[in-house]
């Protein structure tokens, strides 16, 4: 008779089942039922708790994991009450789990990163972000990747592990952003008058926020003129930024023309030096 078939073989984890009574089986079944009920209750509580702080998908995933953990622990405890040696079974499961973890290492990294991102929520679908040098609107978020639609209409699939381990710039999370716009005036311009005109124009631009107040500062003396830096706030969407910049540039040009303020074009002053005298006198 083989070792597996012998009921007295201690190496066989099922060897002692033949000597169990009805009460032993009832205890084991009771343990499983209690573990399942506790798992369902704990899973529901975990789902409700996480659903308030992360996505519904992650909440359900964690809830099922908690419930499954209770069931597995109850199953192991029930086997132990039945006198079954669970050491070899757990060892085999551990080796199988290690092999799967090594085989699907990249996938597991993406899943874990996806869980952390769903809990922290550095961005949501619809936000405009910059990740790993890619800019665009977040289209989808799942446990494996982040779907991004670039501003040029190209769809980009970013693995979660790379997203989580790199800086994330969220342009739209706070609702508005500040932009710096530069404009130059000629050196003959009265800077105080030019600043007053600029601020007056900025106050009339649709989409340019009045609070915080727009600012205009003399930034530098350029090669062809004196450059002003205009700083202002606007809606976070990139489309709003471009509309505001366009209207600001057009309005400044019209107002400068009315006020006689010149926007200098690139120019250079060249001084012609006389040729050197011939020392020989010829």
Q: What features would you describe in this structure?
A:
The protein is an alpha+beta fold and 282 residues long. The protein has three domains: 15-103, Helix Hairpins; 123-170, SH3 type barrels (Roll); 176-259, Alpha-Beta Plaits, CATH 3.30.70. The protein has seven helices and eight strands; from the N terminus they run ααααββββαββαββα. The strands form two sheets. Strands 4-3-2-1-5 form a five-stranded antiparallel sheet. α6 packs across α7 (238-259). The longest helix has 30 residues, at 22-51. It is elongated. The relative contact order is 0.08. The model is unreliable at 1-8 (pLDDT under 50).
Quick recap:
45% of the residues lie in helices and 19% in strands. The protein has seven helices and eight strands.
Mean pLDDT: 83
The ordered H/E elements are HHHHEEEEHEEHEEH
Terminal Cα span? 127 Å
Can you summarize the main beta sheet? 5 strands, antiparallel
Number of helices: 7
Just give the CATH class of the largest domain: Mainly Alpha
Integer count of domains = 3
How would you write the strand order of the largest sheet?
4-3-2-1-5
Entry keywords:
three-stranded antiparallel beta sheet, 19% strand, Helix Hairpins, 3 domains, alpha+beta, SH3 type barrels, Alpha-Beta Plaits, 282 residues, 45% helix
């Amino acid at each position: 008779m083989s070792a597996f078939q012998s009921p007295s073989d201690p190496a066989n984890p099922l060897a002692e089942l033949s000597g169990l009574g009805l009460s032993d089986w009832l205890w084991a079944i009771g343990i499983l039922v209690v573990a399942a009920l506790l798992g369902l209750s704990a899973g529901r509580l975990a789902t409700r708790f996480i659903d308030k702080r992360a996505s519904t998908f992650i909440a359900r995933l964690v809830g099922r994991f908690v419930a499954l953990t209770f069931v597995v622990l109850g199953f192991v405890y029930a086997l132990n009450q039945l006198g079954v040696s669970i050491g070899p079974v757990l060892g085999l499961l551990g080796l199988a789990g290690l092999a799967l973890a090594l085989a699907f290492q990249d996938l597991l990294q993406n899943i874990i990163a996806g869980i952390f991102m769903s809990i922290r929520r550095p961005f949501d679908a619809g936000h405009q972000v910059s990740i790993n040098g890619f800019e665009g609107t977040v289209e989808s978020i799942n446990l494996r990747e982040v779907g991004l639609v670039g501003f040029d209409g190209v769809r980009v699939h970013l693995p979660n592990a790379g997203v989580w381990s790199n800086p994330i710039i969220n342009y739209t999370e706070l609702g508005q952003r500040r932009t710096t716009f530069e404009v130059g005036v000629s050196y003959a311009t009265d800077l105080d008058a030019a600043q007053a005109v600029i601020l007056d124009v900025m106050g009339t631009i649709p989409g340019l926020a009045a609070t915080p107040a727009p600012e205009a500062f003399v930034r530098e003396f350029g090669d062809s003129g004196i450059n002003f830096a205009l700083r202002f706030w606007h809606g976070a969407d990139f489309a709003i930024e471009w509309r505001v910049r366009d209207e600001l540039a057009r309005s400044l040009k019209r107002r400068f023309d009315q006020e006689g303020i010149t926007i200098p074009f690139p120019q250079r002053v060249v001084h012609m030096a006389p040729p050197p005298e011939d020392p020989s006198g010829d």
